[in-house]
Write a structure and sequence with these properties.
Mean pLDDT of chain B: 93
Strand content of chain B: 5-15%
Largest sheet of chain A: 8 strands, mixed
Low-confidence stretches of chain B: none
Structural class of chain B: alpha/beta
Order of helices and strands of chain B: EHEHHEHHEHEHEEHHEHEHEHHHHHH
Number of domains of chain A: 2
Oligomer: heterodimer
Largest sheet of chain B: 5 strands, parallel
CATH topology of the largest domain in chain A: Rossmann fold
Number of strands of chain A: 14
Strand order of the largest sheet of chain A: 3-4-2-1-5-6-7-8
CATH architecture of the largest domain in chain B: Alpha-Beta Barrel
Strand content of chain A: 15-25%
């Protein structure tokens, strides 16, 4: 079985759940021997490149210099194809424009203003939608010679490409919905994006949702028939080994740390985190609130913390990766995810994997799978504060949540998600 | 000769309101919810079951007998929310065929943490039963049939009970039958009655289970099983939750029909009769000694204390609760003491159990919480509030006594 996967970032360039999910799923498939051709956007100088799979670092080729830090080494059955593009997850038309302008500025500086025209394959001329469609055309061309049995596309920006490839190859298409416009933009959905999402879901042979929460949105808001939509929960790979406690790391701290980790954007409810922080600080003093991440509401959050009078108690770390993430989990007493609309929410699973108890929004997909977590309505700032204070005040509560939660996530592994996807593929590949 | 001894446990807790750390109210209990549940259970279980048993007792003219243990906290709720149930219990008491047992007034685990408090609650309950039903209880049962040798010795030394009951768990019987009267280790006068869990659970749990090999259970079939005990035992102790009749087993399972035919079928055999626990004790001598060094109960398959004390939250909550005993009693404030005692109701800790959290089941019955963690947080917030009231009350007393002294000095 060979899968053509149209996806997103790979470590270490992960900006959020979408990249993490693609990586987790692909790695799990790789481990059971499924062959994957993985197409992803990257800013490179050629129109597209085809990295042949791993070369061991000892061989010292220049390709492996590129491959190794990208974590490609461990994946034996995955081939990568990159398409030169400025596309990234979570873009809006506005942020895409900003990205293009920044890239152009950098090019001008690098080229000393000598050549204002686009260099290499990246086309800076169109807006986001134009880029999505151009990407589709390039992808179709790129995979012409490829052999595959199934096309698996992750989130709306890949759907046009997936539709073209499916039409040309006559292979079945799986549209994987990691989030919808309703999650990202509330009720003020962008009509063009919605149309692309809807088209992708309707043209696909099967739609995979990351939770029942999202499946309901797909059925209710996009008019997709229920028997076409499957639920495959995301998973988490074991990072911590249950020994990640602060005491072991030798980090001394006298203050409690409550952690928010994720993009600081409307969907993630940062203002509810800060509102709860204010209420907690009315009752407890020796606690710090850490917002680890960045996003379009970052500055607003900093201002809000100051306006609430808790500026000295709220720390903004910016975007964290790798070891820094592990360190922040080691320092945290509690993790809070007050998401307004979270299709799944992988981060609480990572937190539990790293021995940090979690409070999660009931308006999330992950609340369907976790039992050993505290659950709240995202808007109920008083209740969020009530639960935060309880966890910080009562060690037996923190301990029980942590131990049972850590044990529970061991059952939520990517290999189960991958197995489920393979089942779906097999059903689609049965000759009619 | 084998006597059937029925005993029904009747209890509902005072459930807590949703109480955050920011709440300042002194009303901790959710009157609305408790009233609604009490009335619901009254309509589905207490009233139809009491009326049925009353009819059967009258029909069999003294040959059909049963026993109840009703907690003090339920009696309080019945008076407030469903007084018609009290009249039916009253009528049952008047028949002379119904015995009332003693237990802790607050359905608490106080025996494990404060012997004084335990004895006070038992005295209060016995007095309450005597005042409502004109009967002085002779037989004692601890909350959830929690029992060990120490309990038996304590109860015997209190010198007001002749019998005690507990679960006929395999590990204390060691191959012996629960269908006899026994003597607890270390006691010389007190007699021990053991629940026949197999036959009791056939009615209480398996009755409506279609996958059970013995489904459907008819009165005739059950009477045959009872009859088989003749020659192998003196008494069959059928101890169960009263809510079996109408709540755990809904009316449409046929449970009321089963009970209404059972006395007839059992009394068809001349070797079988019905006895109350006191009558069993007065009739039969102990055939051996039962040694229970470690605590047992009638809960879950483990029949131990893990339902209430199995995780750190539960044991922390209960320890914090009992640590307050002296301060609470020093306030001499009736409301504070009453609130503290209502917090001892074992259900609060039952709700914090994580044992079957993934499965749900019996622990979820009338459980007002979505998760055991929510119940712990709620309980501790209420306890915190009670603690503050206690501290304030002590402070007030101190300042009052200072001014008294000043008055004296001048």
């Amino acid at each position: 079985m060979r899968v053509l996967m149209l996806g997103w970032e790979f470590p270490p360039f992960i900006s959020g759940g979408l990249g993490t999910a693609c990586y987790g799923l692909t790695k799990a498939m790789d481990q059971v021997g499924i062959k994957v051709t993985f197409v992803l956007p990257k800013m490179v100088d050629k129109k597209y490149t085809t990295h042949v799979r791993l070369l061991s670092p000892e061989m010292g080729s220049s390709d492996s210099d590129v491959a190794a830090p990208l974590g490609f080494n461990e994946l034996k059955n995955v081939q990568f194809r990159t398409i030169s593009s400025a596309l990234r997850p979570y873009l809006t038309p506005e942020t895409y424009q900003l990205r293009i302008e920044k890239a152009l500025r950098q090019k001008r500086i690098a080229a000393g203003e000598a050549s204002p025209d686009p260099i290499g394959g990246v086309d800076y001329s169109g807006d986001l939608y134009a880029e999505v469609h151009r990407y589709a055309a390039v992808a179709a061309e790129l995979v012409k010679g490829e052999q595959f049995d199934i096309i698996h596309a992750h989130d709306w920006m890949t759907y046009p490409a997936a539709i073209v490839i499916a039409a040309m190859s006559q292979k079945p298409l799986v549209a994987h919905v990691h989030s919808t416009e309703f999650d990202r933009s509330g009720e003020h959905v962008n009509q063009t994006v919605y149309d692309i999402e809807r088209e992708g879901m309707h043209r696909a042979d099967k739609v995979v949702a990351v939770s029942h929460f999202t499946r309901n949105v797909i059925i209710g808001r996009y008019g997709v028939s229920g028997d076409k939509v499957e639920v495959v929960y995301n998973g988490v790979d074991r990072n911590g080994n249950g020994n990640g406690s602060l005491a072991d790391s030798g980090i001394q701290k006298d203050e409690k740390v409550v952690l928010f980790l994720g993009r600081i954007t409307m969907q993630k409810g940062p203002e509810y985190f800060l509102g709860a922080a204010k209420k907690v600080l009315e009752v407890m003093d020796d606690v710090k609130f850490v917002m680890a991440g960045t996003g379009d509401l970052m500055h607003r959050a900093v201002t809000m913390a100051a306006e609430l009078g808790i500026g000295s108690k709220v720390l903004f770390t910016g975007f964290l990766q790798g070891e820094a993430v592990r360190d922040i989990y080691r320092m945290a007493d509690l993790f809070v995810m007050p998401s307004v609309s979270e299709p799944f929410g992988i981060v609480p699973l990572e937190a539990l994997d790293n021995d940090v108890p979690v409070i999660i929004s009931k308006q999330s997909g992950v609340s369907e799978v976790l039992t050993h977590a505290l659950k709240v309505d995202f808007w109920d700032v008083t209740e969020i504060a009530n639960k935060i204070i309880a966890v910080l005040k009562y060690p037996p509560l923190q301990m029980t949540l942590r131990n049972y939660g850590n044990y529970e996530v061991r059952k939520l592994r990517w290999k189960d998600s991958a197995a489920r996807c393979v089942e779906i593929y097999s059903d689609l590949m049965v000759p009619v | 000769m084998a006597s059937v001894c029925f005993y029904f446990q009747v209890h509902q807790p005072f459930r807590l309101k949703h109480y955050t750390v920011f709440d300042k109210s002194r009303q901790y209990f959710d009157e609305g919810k408790n009233a609604a549940i009490c009335r619901k259970v009254a309509n589905k279980c207490y009233l139809p079951a009491n009326r049925l048993l009353l009819r059967l007792i009258r029909k069999h003219k003294g040959r059909f007998k049963v026993a109840y243990s009703i907690t003090g906290v339920l009696l309080e709720q019945l008076l407030s929310y469903a007084p018609e149930v009290m009249s039916t219990f009253d009528a049952l008491a008047q028949t002379g065929c119904v015995e009332f047992l003693a237990e802790t007034y607050y359905h608490s685990l106080s025996f494990l943490y404060s012997r004084n408090e335990f004895l006070e609650q038992v005295k209060k309950h016995a007095a309450c039963i005597e005042s409502f039903f004109g009967q002085r209880p002779r037989v004692f049962r601890n909350t959830e049939l929690i029992y060990n040798n120490d309990l038996a010795k304590l109860v015997e030394s209190a010198d007001c009970f002749d019998g005690i009951i507990t679960e006929g768990a395999d590990r204390i019987l060691c191959g012996r039958s629960p269908d006899f009267v026994y003597r607890p280790t270390g006691c010389s006068r007190l007699k021990l009655l053991l629940k026949n869990y197999s036959l009791s659970d056939d009615i209480a749990f398996r009755f409506s289970n279609r996958d059970w090999s013995q489904w459907p259970l008819t009165a005739d079939k059950f009477a045959q099983w009872i009859h088989r005990v003749n020659g192998n035992g003196n008494v069959v102790n059928l101890f169960m939750d009263y809510e079996t009749f109408g709540e755990h087993q809904w009316a449409d399972t046929g449970i009321f029909d089963f009970i209404s035919h059972l006395p007839d079928k059992i009394l068809e055999h001349p070797d079988n009769d019905f006895k109350t626990p006191s009558e069993v004790i007065d009739t039969y001598e102990p055939v051996g000694v039962i040694d229970v060094p470690h605590l047992i109960s009638w809960a879950d398959t483990e029949r131990d204390l893990s339902a209430w004390l199995g995780n750190p939250m539960q044991s922390n909550a209960i320890h914090e609760l009992y640590r307050l005993e002296n301060n609470i009693k020093k306030t001499n404030d009736e409301k504070i003491v009453s609130d503290w005692r209502k917090l001892q109701i074992s259900d609060h800790f039952y709700y914090m159990c994580t044992k079957y959290f993934a499965d749900g089941d019996v622990h979820k019955y009338f459980n007002p919480y979505d998760s055991p963690y929510d119940s712990y947080i709620n309980f501790m917030n209420v306890l915190g509030s009670l603690q503050n009231r206690c501290a304030k009350s002590v402070k007030q007393d101190r300042s009052v006594s200072r001014t008294d002294l000043v008055g004296l000095a001048g």
